[in-house]
Each structure stands twice: as structure tokens, then as C-alpha cells.
Write a structure and sequence with these properties.
Shape: globular
Number of strands: 21
Strand content: 25-35%
Number of domains: 3
Helix content: 10-25%
CATH architecture of the largest domain: 3-Layer(aba) Sandwich
CATH topology of the largest domain: Rossmann fold
CATH class of the largest domain: Alpha Beta
CATH superfamily of the largest domain: P-loop containing nucleotide triphosphate hydrolases
Radius of gyration: 27 Å
Largest sheet: 9 strands, mixed
Structural class: alpha/beta
Distance between the termini: 85 Å
Length: 451
């Protein structure tokens, strides 16, 4: 009996199964499998045509490509090396209502001063887009043209005909994809993958910088931009901090710049305005009190002065609480365990509440010393010396280790009058600062008379 090679393919995620199933094991969608037959070339391994390969110096293109600078300093910083790379495919994502459309409209207007820009809005009508532009104070320019077309094939055909320097689509999840071989719902997994492939081809083939926006719903149910991360050249998250109405643009992936680079914008009636000196904002709310410690964290290429706040109170529960925001809770628990082991302080019997002020987050280990000092300061109810910054990593043996980029950290601290720097005994530091060196955690107790 001849073997049956029929397969079934999920119309939502593209998963291929050897037989029909009611629920797709990959995306958990019901009744999404349809009969699928691999192409003859895939099934038989037919030989494809070859392509010429050449050495590096024979590849087409210039040795250095001029980037598209918008003049918006925070945007250009995050894009990397002073602006957008020609032919890049980028996605700007974030929660609904965070300000993605506002930011891109302002960027489009700034880029249109020296480059041709096409802006397609699949979410707003032409009249709504016009009202938004008037509110943001954007003046009409022949180099900046708009359309509320949502059909992706029409958008791509227009881009190929007009050949602008930058093409912006807001948003990719609302674009309509017409394809004879598939019937996709806007926002579905297969829709995003196929649309992303078409736009990537447009960007590379015609050297058009394509920027799209993508939503992440609060419930996380819609297929999000995570699916496009391997296709695009850059992924940028726009995040919010409600207390200051500050928006942070973070580079999560960037083939043409530094990852984890941050740009700061302040929400104003006229749109998102770049924050000229974010450290002034961060330090304006810093307090000199028990439990407060300052550190300097490197985000991309930018040093940020951050206040760490700790609160240690006797626990009323059988299991002490550990509530931490802005830093990995395991790191705070680990440092608390190191302090209790070597300094004999009873941190295991207190509730620990810890946060990074300003809504920022810290990933690097250079903040270990500041975390330890904040915990000890709160435990002994004794403030640290005023205008001091802690820079150091703490090992499991209780030793304090040096950190990288110390010159830029200390330079930024000195700019704001923070002269006292707590560092490792082995740290190589530039002259001119009041350094207090520590070899291990035992020496930290000299800062707290109660200890």
C-alpha cells in the first residue's frame, strides 16, 4: 500500500502536522488546520540556481554610509551613531496610548527637512491625522506626505514608485494583507510574519528605511512584535513613567547601534519633547535619609544617576516579605544574605521593601555596593554621607570588586556635585575625587555608628 504523505498546516501560526488535529499544539488555536502539500522542489530537493559570491571589497556600496539625522537628539542617540541607517527595517513598540504615533509623527516632520518621507496611517483617517499634526505644531512640507491607506500591497507599490528615504507605517498590525494563498486576519501570527517579510524585502531592495509601529496589549493576547524581532534590524520599546510624564525609548535590538541605549522624552501639550538633562530630573527627587543610596548605572553609552531606596521593618509574618521593583529581586535577596552571613545583621527577620526611584531598572552588577549600603542604612536607621555615590560589585565571599566604565560614572557624578565615591580597594580611578575604598563588606560597618 502506498504511503500517504498528506500533511496539514495551521493557518494561524504555520505549524505543520502529519495529521489533522482539532487544536494546534503550537498556538493553541482551534480548527485552524488545513491540508498542505509541500512544493515539488522542497519534497524532492531539486537543485537551485547558484549565485555569485565575491570578496568584501567587491561588494557594492560605500565604505561609510551617511545616516539620516532628525535633529531630535534623544531619537538620534537611540538609533545609533547619529541617526537612521538607510535601508533599515525598524519597529517601535509599546503599550497602547504610550505615544508611539506622536513620536513618529514628530520624527517624520524633523526628517522631512532634508529627506523625502512617506507616512501611512492604518489607524487614523486623514482628517484625524491632520488634527494631530496641527496639535503638534507640524507645518506642511512637500517632502512629507501622508496617506490613510491600510492595504499593504498598495503601500509597498507606492514606496517602490516614489522611492522615499523613509517610509513609516502606523501600525503594521492594522495593515491589510491580500494574498491568494492565505486568508489572514490582521494582527494574527501569520499576518505579521508575512507582512514583515514583504516590508523587509522593500527596505533591502530599494534602500528605503522602513519604520513600523506595533502594539502590545495589556492582556498580551494579540500577536505581538516579538514575532518580528528576528526579521527587523532594530526593536525599540517606548515605556512610560507616570510620575514625571516621562517616556523612555529603549533599544532592545539594534544592528546599527548600541543595545540598551535610552532616550528620554517628556509628554507635553505639544507632543513628546526631548529631556535635555535626565540626571537633573532623576536627582531632583533624591532624598538624604536612612535607606537611600545613589549609584551610577550605564545604559547603552549613557551614565544614569539613580537613587536606590530600601526599607527594613520587623516582620509580622512567619515568612518575611521581599518586595522589590526596578532590580532583580534575587539580587537583593542575595546581597541581604551576604550581609547577614558576614556582618551578623538580622536581615532574615525583617521585611525588605526595595525600589529604584524614577521608574528605571538596573541590570548590571555595579549597583551591588549601593544595594548593600541602602539595606544597611535602613537597618541601622543611619543615613549615608550626603552627596555620595556607591560603585562596586559584591562577591559571594563578601569582597568588593571594581566596576567597568568608572571614569564616565565618576565624571557624571562630579558634574552634579557628588564628590564622595565609594569604590573597591582595587578600583583604578581618575584623580580629583574624594574616594573611600572598601576591601570587603566588613569595612562597610564604619559608615554606621550603630553597627
Amino acid at each position: 500500500m502506498a504511503k500517504n504523505n498528506a500533511q496539514h498546516k495551521c493557518t494561524t501560526c504555520g505549524h505543520i502536522a502529519v495529521k489533522w488535529a482539532g487544536c494546534c499544539p503550537e498556538c493553541k488555536t482551534w480548527n485552524s488546520f488545513e491540508p498542505y502539500s509541500p512544493s515539488t522542489s522542497q519534497a524532492t530537493g531539486a537543485t537551485a540556481a547558484t549565485t555569485p559570491v565575491v570578496p568584501l571589497d567587491e561588494l557594492s556600496g560605500h565604505n561609510r554610509i551617511e545616516r539620516y539625522q532628525s535633529g531630535i537628539k534623544e531619537w538620534d542617540r537611540v538609533m545609533g551613531d547619529g541617526g537612521l541607517m538607510p535601508g533599515a527595517f525598524l519597529i517601535v513598540t509599546g503599550d497602547p496610548g504610550i505615544g508611539k504615533s506622536t513620536l513618529l509623527l514628530q520624527v517624520a516632520a524633523a526628517l522631512a527637512q532634508s529627506h523625502d518621507v512617506l507616512y501611512f496611517s492604518s489607524e487614523e483617517s486623514g482628517s484625524q491625522l491632520k488634527q494631530r499634526g496641527i496639535r503638534l505644531g507640524i507645518t506642511s512640507s512637500p517632502r512629507l506626505r501622508f496617506s490613510d491607506c491600510a492595504d499593504l500591497a498598495t503601500i509597498i507599490a507606492t514606496g517602490e514608485a516614489e522611492k522615499p528615504a523613509i517610509l513609516i507605517i502606523d501600525s503594521i498590525q492594522n495593515c491589510i494583507v491580500q494574498d491568494d494563498e492565505r486568508q489572514t486576519v490582521p494582527g494574527s501570527i501569520s499576518h505579521l510574519k508575512y507582512a514583515g517579510f514583504l516590508l523587509m524585502t522593500l527596505a533591502k531592495k530599494h534602500t528605503i528605511t522602513v519604520i513600523v509601529t506595533g502594539h502590545i496589549t495589556k492582556e498580551g493576547q494579540m500577536a505581538g512584535p516579538k514575532l518580528l524581532e528576528h526579521i527587523v534590524d532594530g526593536v525599540f520599546y517606548l515605556q512610560g513613567e507616570d510620575r514625571w510624564q516621562v517616556r523612555m525609548l529603549r533599544a532592545v535590538k539594534n544592528r546599527f547601534g548600541t543595545i540598551d541605549e535610552l532616550g528620554f522624552f517628556e509628554m507635553a501639550p505639544s507632543g513628546l519633547q526631548p529631556v535635555q538633562n535626565i540626571n537633573a530630573h532623576l536627582l531632583s527627587q533624591a532624598t538624604h535619609a536612612p535607606g537611600s543610596a545613589l549609584t551610577c548605572s550605564i545604559e547603552g553609552t549613557r551614565p544614569l544617576l539613580l537613587e536606590l531606596q530600601a526599607l527594613c521593618v520587623p516582620t509580622k509574618f512567619s515568612m518575611p516579605q521581599r518586595i522589590v521593583t526596578g532590580v532583580d529581586p534575587k539580587r537583593v535577596a542575595l546581597i541581604a544574605a551576604i550581609l547577614e552571613k558576614y556582618l551578623q545583621v538580622g536581615l532574615s527577620g525583617v521585611d525588605i521593601f526595595f525600589k529604584v526611584s524614577g521608574g528605571c531598572s538596573i541590570k548590571e552588577s555595579a549597583s551591588d555596593l549601593a544595594i548593600a549600603l541602602a539595606l544597611l542604612s535602613s537597618f541601622f536607621q543611619h543615613p549615608l554621607p550626603e552627596k555620595s555615590v556607591a560603585l562596586g560589585e559584591i562577591s559571594l565571599t563578601g569582597h568588593i570588586k571594581p566596576v567597568s566604565y568608572v571614569e564616565s560614572r565618576i565624571k557624571e557624578a562630579n558634574t552634579f556635585g557628588l564628590k564622595t565615591i565609594f569604590v573597591s580597594e582595587e578600583q583604578q580611578c581618575p584623580a580629583g575625587s574624594d574616594l573611600q575604598r572598601f576591601k570587603n563588606v566588613y569595612q562597610l560597618l564604619k559608615l554606621f555608628p550603630a553597627g
